[in-house]
Design goal:
alpha+beta; five-stranded antiparallel beta sheet; three-stranded mixed beta sheet; 7 helices; 8 strands; 23% strand
Length: 246
């Protein structure tokens, strides 16, 4: 669809645009948390991102996104095929582990923040990678045009115009959300399931404190339960039969 063509331009500067818009919204949010990272085996700790949020409404905004530089942290060992490990740190000292591949150019990032229900603070956080949604054929053609213009030093061609209708704007907003390079999930922890305790009478024990096994009572038969009905019926039959004689 035509309205999705402009998304490729947003992808080139999407992170900067998100942060610029988030700075304005951050002042209205009551809480914030700053995540840092360190390469495992290195004592250097660097800031990663600051997230402003409201634990009641789950609204959030990003600020100062500074991901690790892949070129500076990649292994110089030619025999190494695994990605380096990074530790994501919270101010309270808790941490989670991710890989350097999480911050690749062709990968989107997802930030999960676990919120305490008591004071709204973040007690755990993690960063993981997400595969971006595939581009449509029209978007792919436009990206090639942009790449050719950049390679030749020419101005970037403008995307096709978006129809100025409410439906087109709503669909464009949904598509832009799919292409959002950094997603934040606020997870509020709730009370766990309460155990369903079975109740029974206190067991009988002997003088040594051992439980005395109880004999299982067999279920009564139908006649044992309702013998009195048969007795009344028999008496009525006998009384009625005797009254008929003269």
């Amino acid at each position: 669809m035509v309205f999705r063509s402009f998304l490729l331009v947003l992808l080139a500067v999407c992170t900067c645009t998100v942060l610029a818009a988030s700075d304005a919204a951050a002042s209205k949010l009551p809480k914030s948390v700053t995540l840092s990272y360190e390469l495992i085996g290195s004592p250097s700790v660097k800031p990663l991102v600051t997230v402003f949020y409201d634990p009641k409404t789950s609204k959030h905004a990003l600020s100062s996104w500074t991901p690790p530089s892949l070129d500076s942290l990649k292994s110089t060992n030619p025999e190494s095929t695994s990605s380096k490990l990074l530790r994501i740190l919270l101010p309270n000292g808790s941490s989670t582990v991710t890989t350097l591949d999480t911050f690749g150019d062709d990968v989107h990032q997802k930030i999960d923040l676990w919120i305490s229900p008591d004071d709204g603070s973040v007690f755990s956080a993690s960063v993981s990678g997400l595969s971006p949604p595939p581009l449509s054929a029209e978007e792919e053609r436009y990206r090639k045009k942009v790449a050719r213009a950049k390679a030749k030093g020419r101005p970037i061609p403008p995307p096709p115009p978006v129809p100025n209708t409410k439906k087109a704007r709503e669909e464009a907003a949904k598509a832009a959300a799919l292409h959002e390079p950094i997603k934040v999930n606020l997870i509020t922890s709730g009370p766990g399931p309460s155990p369903d305790l079975a109740t029974r009478k206190p067991p009988q024990v002997d003088t040594e404190g051992r439980e005395i096994p109880q004999e299982e009572q067999q279920e009564k038969s139908f006649f044992q339960k309702y013998w009195w009905v048969f007795l009344i019926a028999t008496m009525l039959m006998m009384t009625g039969g005797g009254g008929a004689e003269k």
